[in-house]
């Protein structure tokens, strides 16, 4: 499961029913899937930067444990404060979009009265994809620092 595959799935969900409007369930799932593309992008970054990427001499159990260690609430809080921590633009943009998409995902998943429109969801998917791309273009040194920042407990 890669972030790009999740983005494609989100796009497929809003394309369903081309003749008419997509069902609200498809729009909701598309929002949720776009958020999860960002979440899995960050989880993979944490594991790759701290344990080693594909092809590295790495422990698969350690990589999987690091990947799974990312928590939604902690990630959101660290993204909120990361903007003031001197990270480069690509990371700040990713962090800002992560917060926005997490709120939209919670609304899509837990607010039965909410309604979504195809153009708005399309914009959300596009914004998530662009944030992921910018994040990947950020130097590895900065992504590694961000991985440590969002994953490990801060001590004074």
Could you explain how this protein is built, in words?
By secondary structure, the chain is mainly α. It has a single domain, classed as Four Helix Bundle (Hemerythrin (Met), subunit A). Helix content is 74%, strand content 0%. It is built from 7 helices and no strands. It is globular, with a radius of gyration of 16 Å. 39% of the residues are buried. The mean pLDDT is 93.
Characteristics of this structure?
about 160 residues; Four Helix Bundle (Hemerythrin (Met), subunit A); mainly alpha
Describe the secondary-structure layout.
Elements: H1 3-15, H2 24-50, H3 60-69, H4 72-82, H5 89-110, H6 118-137, H7 140-151
Helix pairs in contact: 1-2, 1-6, 2-3, 2-5, 2-6, 2-7, 4-5, 4-7, 5-6
Structure summarized in a few sentences:
With 156 residues, the chain is mainly alpha-helical.
| Average of per-residue pLDDT values | 93
The total strand number stands at 0
- Give the DSSP E fraction (strand runs of 2 or more residues): under 5%
The total count of helices amounts to 7
Share of helix, binned:
over 70%
Any idea how many domains?
Answer: 1
The stretches of 5 or more residues where confidence is low (pLDDT under 50) are none
Order of helices and strands: HHHHHHH
The structural class is mainly alpha
At the third CATH level, what is the topology name?
A: Four Helix Bundle (Hemerythrin (Met), subunit A)
Q: What is the CATH-assigned architecture?
A: Up-down Bundle
From the alpha carbons, calculate the radius of gyration and give it in angstroms.
16 Å
């Amino acid at each position: 499961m890669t972030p790009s595959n999740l983005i494609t799935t989100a796009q497929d969900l809003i394309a369903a029913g081309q003749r008419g409007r997509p069902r609200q369930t498809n729009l909701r799932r598309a929002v949720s899937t776009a958020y999860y593309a960002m979440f899995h992008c960050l989880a993979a970054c944490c594991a790759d930067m701290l344990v080693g990427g594909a092809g590295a001499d790495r422990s698969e159990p350690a990589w999987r444990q690091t990947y799974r260690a990312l928590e939604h609430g902690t990630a959101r809080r660290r993204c909120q404060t990361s903007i003031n921590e001197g990270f480069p633009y690509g990371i700040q943009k990713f962090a800002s979009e992560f917060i926005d998409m997490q709120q939209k995902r919670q609304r899509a998943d837990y607010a039965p009265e909410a309604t979504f429109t195809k153009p708005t969801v399309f914009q959300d998917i596009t914004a998530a994809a662009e944030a992921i791309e910018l994040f990947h273009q950020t130097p590895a040194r900065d992504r590694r620092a961000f991985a440590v920042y969002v994953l490990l407990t801060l001590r004074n």
